[in-house]
Write a structure and sequence with these properties.
Blueprint: H1 3-16, H2 21-40, E1 46-51, E2 56-66, E3 78-80, H3 81-87, E4 96-101, H4 108-135, E5 141-149, E6 153-157, E7 163-167, E8 182-193, E9 196-202, H5 206-216, H6 218-221, E10 225-233, E11 237-244, H7 251-256, H8 261-269, E12 274-279, H9 284-291, E13 297-302, E14 308-313, H10 315-322, H11 327-336, E15 339-344, H12 365-373, H13 379-383, H14 387-394, H15 398-412
Parallel strand pairs: 2-3, 11-12, 14-15
Antiparallel strand pairs: 1-2, 2-4, 5-6, 5-8, 6-7, 8-9, 10-11, 13-14
């Protein structure tokens, strides 16, 4: 293989991989320098001249002419006068000899190895460029095309045909895609696995919801409204705390839009995820009250260590505070960074009702605590639910719940 064929084939390959010309020249020079070091042990007195456009390659070796009896004659950058005269009869001591080295001088095997090395360097560079490109774009929303649906992930491609991954754990449970469909997600993280870059997307990340709001609400994009915090149960419910830096702007109204015009497109993208937009405030009690909306709170008590909050409500408001599947109370706790316990207000109890603490001699304290955590703090509030519903809300065993119901029923017999 001559130099022009080698360089032309490499240049064509590099072009397909979108490698720019200066980088391509640098790779060529590095590989040929490596070839020189393998053959001559040194490369500091060699010049490599590459013209990738024409497929030209020139390798020049420079040596200083010394007397045949000189002690320096064995230095790699020196040549004896007699050897120099074989190249050009007019050479004299002290002059520099420039001798061209042909590619064929390196041997066929070395040239073939160089070709493989060139291709591998481009592939490695391509991987590094992909890694750096997406590393800088983490947190950005991207629209891709689905190419393969696997049990653990969905493989998609970007506009440059790079393969990206949406793992099962980062998919909304209601997500259903087919090959060829568009898929919108946020760039979650980029990893190097066994030397290969892996770009991981997410549709469950709070950042994805934040970017959707930025795209739909100009006031957020312009910085007039800021998102203080987002908590999500992907595909089910989310709470978004917002604050306005302009008193004339209602942050909640701006995010929802006229007749819900702005938030509807976000809800559709998230498979009908119920989104509560909350006006942020430094007033802790008011913030908790907004976080537990639509429930109406009677009073709030904060523990001495400030880690738990006890919220007291009228009996008909407890289920609203807990929400379907317990999502409302869980998200409110995460929004506040505090555990929130919901209780019926003792002043609102019916005369015949009995608080669960009265059964502490028959029901273990930890069981009573588990029931209280989901707002079941009186006998009648527990009896109002079915066995299956109590098991679902509390994760208590069927046998345990059956025994609790038996004890509580006896109280009213």
């Amino acid at each position: 293989m001559d130099s022009s064929t080698l360089i032309e084939s490499f240049a064509e390959f590099a072009k397909k991989k979108n490698i720019d010309r200066p980088t391509m020249i640098r790779i060529l020079e590095d590989v040929f320098k490596t070839m020189i070091r393998k053959k001559y042990n040194y490369d500091d007195n060699f010049d490599v001249i590459v013209n990738a456009d024409k497929g030209d390659l020139e390798i020049w070796r420079f040596r200083e002419i010394v007397d045949d009896n000189s002690e320096d004659i064995w230095d790699h950058d020196k040549i004896s006068l007699s050897d120099a005269k074989k190249i050009e009869p007019d050479f004299e001591i002290g002059e520099e000899v420039a001798e061209e080295v042909k590619l064929i001088d390196f041997g066929r095997r070395t040239v073939m190895t160089a070709r493989q090395t060139l291709m591998q360097k481009v592939k490695d560079l391509e991987k590094d460029l992909l890694f750096q490109k997406y590393k800088e774009r983490v947190g950005e929303v991207i629209v891709t095309e689905v190419v393969q649906i696997l049990s653990r992930e969905i493989i998609v491609v970007d506009t440059d045909n790079n393969e990206l991954s949406l793992p099962k754990s980062e998919q909304i449970s209601k997500d259903r895609y087919r090959k060829g469909e568009s898929l919108k997600a946020v760039i979650h993280k980029v990893e190097m696995i066994n030397g290969n870059p892996k770009v991981i997307l997410s549709r469950t990340s709070p950042v994805f919801l934040e970017r959707l709001f930025e795209a739909e609400v100009p006031e957020i994009f312009d910085g007039l409204i800021t998102i203080k915090k987002i908590v999500r149960e992907p595909g089910e419910r989310a709470k978004v705390a917002v604050e306005s830096y302009d008193e004339r702007i209602d942050p909640v109204g701006a995010c929802v839009g006229m007749k819900g015009s702005r938030i509807h497109s976000i809800v559709r993208e998230l498979r009908n995820e119920n989104i509560d937009v909350i006006n942020f405030t430094d007033n802790k009690e008011l913030y908790i009250s907004r976080a537990l909306s639509p429930a109406k709170i009677v009073r709030i008590e904060v523990s001495e260590d400030n880690e738990r909050v006890s919220v007291f409500l009228k009996p008909d408001q407890v289920s609203l505070a807990i929400g379907k599947g317990g999502y409302n109370i869980r998200l409110a706790s995460r929004l506040m960074d505090q555990e929130i316990d919901v209780y019926r207000d003792i002043d609102e109890l019916e005369d015949e009702d009995v608080v669960l603490d009265e059964f502490s001699d028959e029901i273990d304290a930890w069981i009573i605590h588990e029931l209280k955590k989901v707002g079941l703090d009186t006998a009648k509030s527990v009896l109002a639910l079915s066995l299956d519903e109590i098991v679902r809300r509390t994760d208590l065993e069927d046998e345990t719940v059956s025994e609790i119901l038996r004890i509580l029923n006896q109280e009213f017999e």
